[in-house]
Amino acid sequence: MTKTTRRKKRSFRWLTLVIIGAVVLGAVQMAGRIDRLIDMNNQVAECQVRLAEAQAVYDDKMATIDLLDNPAYLERVARENLGMVKQGETIVSVVRGDAPAQTADDTSASEDAEE
To answer: How much is the pLDDT for 15?
Structure first.
Protein backbone atom coordinates (compact mmCIF):
# COMPACT_ATOMS: atom_id res chain seq x y z
CA MET A 1 0.00 0.00 0.00
CA THR A 2 1.10 3.49 -0.70
CA LYS A 3 1.04 6.47 1.59
CA THR A 4 -1.94 8.03 -0.19
CA THR A 5 -4.03 4.93 0.27
CA ARG A 6 -3.20 4.82 3.98
CA ARG A 7 -4.11 8.49 4.39
CA LYS A 8 -7.43 7.95 2.64
CA LYS A 9 -8.23 5.01 4.94
CA ARG A 10 -7.27 7.01 8.04
CA SER A 11 -9.31 10.02 6.98
CA PHE A 12 -12.22 7.71 6.18
CA ARG A 13 -11.99 6.15 9.67
CA TRP A 14 -11.95 9.55 11.35
CA LEU A 15 -14.89 10.73 9.28
CA THR A 16 -16.80 7.55 10.18
CA LEU A 17 -16.06 8.02 13.89
CA VAL A 18 -17.14 11.66 13.77
CA ILE A 19 -20.39 10.75 12.02
CA ILE A 20 -21.12 7.90 14.46
CA GLY A 21 -20.40 10.23 17.40
CA ALA A 22 -22.72 12.88 15.98
CA VAL A 23 -25.49 10.31 15.48
CA VAL A 24 -25.10 8.98 19.03
CA LEU A 25 -25.10 12.50 20.48
CA GLY A 26 -28.23 13.39 18.48
CA ALA A 27 -29.97 10.21 19.65
CA VAL A 28 -29.17 10.97 23.31
CA GLN A 29 -30.48 14.52 22.97
CA MET A 30 -33.62 13.29 21.21
CA ALA A 31 -34.26 10.72 23.96
CA GLY A 32 -34.08 13.50 26.56
CA ARG A 33 -36.52 15.60 24.61
CA ILE A 34 -38.90 12.68 24.20
CA ASP A 35 -38.87 12.09 27.98
CA ARG A 36 -39.58 15.78 28.53
CA LEU A 37 -42.43 15.67 26.01
CA ILE A 38 -43.96 12.65 27.76
CA ASP A 39 -43.74 14.43 31.14
CA MET A 40 -45.39 17.52 29.69
CA ASN A 41 -48.20 15.42 28.19
CA ASN A 42 -48.79 13.82 31.61
CA GLN A 43 -48.92 17.27 33.22
CA VAL A 44 -51.44 18.43 30.61
CA ALA A 45 -53.62 15.39 31.33
CA GLU A 46 -53.49 16.10 35.09
CA CYS A 47 -54.39 19.73 34.51
CA GLN A 48 -57.32 18.73 32.31
CA VAL A 49 -58.65 16.46 35.07
CA ARG A 50 -58.31 19.23 37.66
CA LEU A 51 -60.01 21.66 35.26
CA ALA A 52 -62.93 19.27 34.77
CA GLU A 53 -63.31 18.91 38.55
CA ALA A 54 -63.19 22.68 39.05
CA GLN A 55 -65.73 23.15 36.24
CA ALA A 56 -68.09 20.69 37.95
CA VAL A 57 -67.79 22.58 41.27
CA TYR A 58 -68.33 25.89 39.45
CA ASP A 59 -71.43 24.56 37.68
CA ASP A 60 -72.81 23.32 41.02
CA LYS A 61 -72.23 26.70 42.65
CA MET A 62 -73.87 28.50 39.72
CA ALA A 63 -76.90 26.22 39.99
CA THR A 64 -77.15 27.08 43.69
CA ILE A 65 -76.91 30.78 42.88
CA ASP A 66 -79.72 30.38 40.35
CA LEU A 67 -81.83 28.73 43.08
CA LEU A 68 -81.41 31.79 45.29
CA ASP A 69 -83.71 33.66 42.90
CA ASN A 70 -86.49 31.18 43.73
CA PRO A 71 -88.59 32.31 46.75
CA ALA A 72 -89.77 28.76 47.53
CA TYR A 73 -86.15 27.57 47.77
CA LEU A 74 -85.25 30.47 50.05
CA GLU A 75 -88.18 29.69 52.32
CA ARG A 76 -87.21 26.01 52.51
CA VAL A 77 -83.60 26.87 53.38
CA ALA A 78 -84.75 29.33 56.05
CA ARG A 79 -87.02 26.70 57.62
CA GLU A 80 -84.61 23.74 57.45
CA ASN A 81 -81.23 25.35 58.14
CA LEU A 82 -82.13 28.39 60.20
CA GLY A 83 -85.22 27.09 62.05
CA MET A 84 -87.28 30.09 61.00
CA VAL A 85 -91.08 30.04 60.98
CA LYS A 86 -93.68 32.32 59.55
CA GLN A 87 -95.55 34.67 61.84
CA GLY A 88 -98.45 32.88 63.49
CA GLU A 89 -97.04 29.35 63.01
CA THR A 90 -96.47 27.07 65.98
CA ILE A 91 -93.22 25.13 66.41
CA VAL A 92 -93.69 21.45 67.15
CA SER A 93 -90.72 19.36 68.31
CA VAL A 94 -90.76 15.61 67.86
CA VAL A 95 -89.14 13.54 70.62
CA ARG A 96 -87.65 10.21 69.64
CA GLY A 97 -89.46 7.23 71.10
CA ASP A 98 -86.26 5.29 71.88
CA ALA A 99 -84.89 7.96 74.22
CA PRO A 100 -85.24 7.02 77.92
CA ALA A 101 -87.83 9.08 79.73
CA GLN A 102 -86.65 10.74 82.93
CA THR A 103 -89.14 10.93 85.78
CA ALA A 104 -89.01 12.62 89.16
CA ASP A 105 -88.09 9.28 90.80
CA ASP A 106 -85.09 8.91 88.45
CA THR A 107 -83.69 12.31 89.40
CA SER A 108 -83.92 11.66 93.16
CA ALA A 109 -82.27 8.22 92.72
CA SER A 110 -79.40 9.75 90.78
CA GLU A 111 -78.95 12.45 93.46
CA ASP A 112 -78.79 9.76 96.20
CA ALA A 113 -76.18 7.83 94.21
CA GLU A 114 -73.95 10.90 93.97
CA GLU A 115 -73.94 11.45 97.76
So the answer is: 84
